[in-house]
Input
Amino acid sequence: MKKYGLSKSERIKTRREVKLLFEGKINSIDSFPLKVLYRWEELAEGEKPVAKIMVSVPHKRIKRAVKRNLIKRRTREAYRINKEIITGKINERNQKLLIVFVYVSSSVKDFDTIKKAVITALNKIANLA
RNA sequence: GCAGCAGGUCGUUCCGUCGCUUCUGCCAUGUUGUAGGAGAGGAAAGUCCGGACAGCGAAGGGCUUCGCACUUCCGAAACGGGAGUUGUCCGUGAGGGCAAGUACCGGUAACAGAAAACAACCGCCUAAGCAGAUCUACGGGUAUGCCGGCAAGGGUGAAAAGGUAGGGUAAGAGCCUACCGGUACCGUUGGUAACAGCGGUAGCCGUACCGGCUGCGGGCUGCAAGGCCAAGUAAACCUGCGUUUGAGGGUGGUCCCGCCCGAGUAGGAGGGUAGGCCGCAUCAGAUAAAUGACGGAAAACUGUUUCCUUGCGGAACAGUUACAGAAUCCGGCUUACAGACCUGCUGCUUUU
RNA sequence: GGUAGCGUGGCCGAGUGGCUAGGCAGAGGUCUGCAAAACCUCGUACAGCGGUUCGAAUCCGCUCGCUACCU
Output
């Protein structure tokens, strides 16, 4: 796994995994302007320990597609730069970690604000694990 | 110089670090390599029109229904575009917006007003016809009434049956005449045409909207169309109709002509699934949806400050750099948009 | 992605071209010793901007917001 990469395999792409996050017993962290939901999963046959993420920005709060895209890119970027915070824990537990970042503000925040929120959330996940 | 109108073009650039999607090659398959290439728009938007494409019985006829409607050219087509015609509204102006087939038939026109369309409430008139007090020279016949006539005047209204003047009359009226305005028709000139100009003829003379009528066009549904693969469940239950005496279905709002399938079918309640591939790209081609993040320069614009300068300008600081993100693909329309540039033109001001 | 529909006071909701009904809630008053009930009175309502028309909630465009359906 690249140290600062974020390829397809590190993103949640199937309906099954989304269902797990929103229907099962989940852990939630508020870190304005984000709400972070995460869940540890046992590895399936042949899988390696990995963290998979998705970013959600509701149309109800941000009307323009350009702005929603911008927020998603900034959030992914902030995770990409700082994901090493949790990579150690994942290898230690030998599990799969699913994370979803839900944007809860109604205005577009700059990169620094989002970055701080992501770092705070990742640190909490690492400490609680 | 300032303000503006019309048409067109563009709509940030460069460097560094770290990333994303995809294609090709290589090493030989790293579910995470390496090298090189490609990677949002003028509106990608709204989904308002039109087409390609796909499925649905041949998509045939009648009725119904929907859309369009000055002329001409372009266009595959469009409720599209160019140029033009007429009317009307806005603007000092350059210009801009809107409208336009037809009038045989029908409907509507609140409130106000006499009346909103074969007009007659007030009003004006009493010539002709009938009756006829007073009067009478006994022949009549006045006032008046009846029967009627008229459309000039009436504070309304968005709109009132062409306007002015004269004649005419009982009173009046295009009833008649002159001039003016409009309409229709004829001729002629120009124009492909809409139409315009000129000449003549006809007293032919209010308006708006809608329906109707006429002509032309349209089958419907839309890539969640449609096709394939994989996985899984329930061939079970209830009700109606039916098995060659034919239920039901096979595209449209309905009917008809004809054709086909047919032993099940329609509804209810309940259960399962909701993954992948094609469609889907002539160098964007994703699919929880890539095309970016951060930092530093440059450029442009705006504002402020002070200084220099006759002035054009220069410097410093601050701010701004829009609207907006492809999802089958094209042609238009509409809407959003910081700012810059080009061409033609208009108004005002100044100088010559 | 595509296809439909809706928007009328704080809330619900009628209104098919002529002053925008009605109910609930709210405010003030009458009544009462005080309340309730009843009665009377009151208010920047047609999502926004244009167009057609003498006149638009209504008809026609565009914009905004909301909802439903198609897999």
In short: Chain A has one domain: 8-128. The mean pLDDT of chain A is 81. Helices of chain A lie at 15-23, 65-82, 84-93, 111-128. Residues 82 and 119 of chain A are 7 Å apart (CA to CA).
